[in-house]
Amino acid sequence: MNRFLTILLADDNEDDVVLTREAFEAAGGNRIEVVEDGEAALAYLRRKGKFKSAPAPDVILLDINMPKKDGFDVLKEIKADADLRRLPVVIFTTSNRDLDIDRAYLEGACSFVIKPLGFDQYVDFARNFSRYWSAISQVPKNRNGHRWS
Amino acid sequence: MDENEESAPNVNILMVDDHPENLLALEVLLAQPGQTLVKAQSGKEALRHLLSQNFAVIILDVQMAEMDGFETAAILRERETSRYTPIIFLTGAHTDPSHVFKGYAVGAVDYLIKPVVPEILQSKVAAFVELARKTELLEASHKKVLEAQSDLRETEAKFRTLVEQLPAVVYLMEIGETDSTVYISPQIETILGFKPDEWTSSRDFWMKQMHPDDLRRLEKELLRHRRRGMRMVLEYRLTGADGRERWIHDESVAIRDEQARPIYRQGFMLDITDRKVAEAERFVFQQELARARDDLEIRVRERTAELMKANQELETLLHVISHDLKEPVRAIKNFTVLFKDRYMAGSDEKGRDFIHRIVRAGDRMGRLINEILTLSKVRQLELPSTEIDGGTVVREALERLEDKIKTAGAKIQTAKSLPVFKVDKVWAVEALYNLIDNALKFTRPGIPPDIEIGSYLVNGSAPSGLVVRDRGPGVPAEQSERIFQLFQRAVGRDIEGTGAGLAIVRQIAERHGGAAWVEPRDGGGSEFIVTFGASGTLPEHGRSPGRREPAPICMPVGGQPS
Lengths: 149, 562
Fold this sequence. Notes:
By secondary structure, chain A is of the alpha/beta class. Chain A is built from five helices and five strands. In chain A, α4 (98-107) links the parallel β4 and β5 (111-114).
């Protein structure tokens, strides 16, 4: 049975955010929460400030190039934080550099996806992604230390 | 006979008497080895003989009919050659000798009264002969002495010339409390401007002219030489008469007495000022040269660093620009498509056309940016070191082009065996990708692309490249270089493409030490050649000397190489 997916999208590019939203909406069975920089992403995960009662994410789509803290910084902090380290982190970026791919996996990301070029591919991606994380892949029950409802 | 008369020089004796029987008698009396007797019967005859010979003694009879002995003698004495020739007069008893003696005071003269006592005559003759011989010997020896003297003078003159022509000053100094100069050659005047007399005038003239530093330095050496008389080689400064300093090279040896004590020092001095100056100059020059060279190296290094930095910055800039351009390009494309799908369903043809053009422009922009990015990455390419089978390269390129090949309905044939290259695989594939993509694009209207891929050999040597052949419209000769330049296109805008593809191919080839070019194909179309090795040289426009490889094995339509 498909789980309803909550995805945290960390991306500073407005256009890409819109596209991603559209694509996942077309795929269905999910909701997207958006933060626009690295600090906000961490604040969200730690339920700080305005994110006190934000919905807990099942998976994170993390862009690399963001202001304040970039994707790798966020990834590092997540994996260093005992409470957060179990969260699946998927790097979602325009970069195709081997350097970045390597570093992502080194820092503990579980996947690296290059942002699709055309909208059709975007929708394909969204569908596959949803399916994978809601139905195919199992996730730990206590994937973050906070008690979520 | 005397024993030593054998080695004695021969002498001539003249006998003059007008009586032949007297001559005969004399002959008998005086005949001896080493003595040649010459007879004359008159004064005239005697004089005749005297013209051609010299005589040790003349025996002259006084009583002669035509010319008497005294007259003959008088004439004899006038002749240079016979002025001093000894004469023995043979006179009769009645002649008064004193009267005669007065007139012939020149040369030896003797008288014998006839009849002569043989022994007396013999002994007188012998005496004169001996005298003549001794005189001859003396003259010979005198001549030798004169010759020797002349030789000696010549040698002396030569020696003097030699010494005076030497560029060196030759000297002889006494070794004693101070070194006083006994002899100095005239060159001293040429070199230092002092006359030899001046130089030898005072005992330590030489030392006084020496630079005090040098004197101090050489004192030990000089002392040693005084004691032991070793060969000395010194260099020091002397001040000339004009006050100018010269550098002197001085070599000397000791001359010893019977007890082998050194008493003289003999040597020569050379003016080496020029050499010293030249050495100093050369040293300075070398320093400056080294400094200049270091300077230059530093500047070259700095300049190179600057250039590299500028180049790097340029590349980075290019990369950043292209990268940053990608995002808005994507946004344009995607939102336009979304807009078209969601809001343009019912709109008219024109509206859809406008949207279509926007999308297409966006696509072109995207491709352009990609190609620029690729090009800039190629330029930073490091030389590869892996050997790749050409077949693999072709296969991967065709895989990437799968969709396009299918859409175009192209027929692609690949040679069964392709050469192995030492290349960077990714870039080699990129190059092939661009070439095949090109071939797919450039077709004759209505005719699907017919492409062959094979190996290219240069001058029959080992294959060093690949060739992609098409049956397209071909490339006019005047365009065949232009098309490889960035953004230069040989065709109109109805054929898609950014104009960067071939530039990329050439860039990749050249970074591998090879080349890329196009040639017309027999029967229509083009052959695009790319080489990856040093043997790939760009031919003149027209046919290249490379050999074509034989017909490839056919592939099924759809272009999947087996």
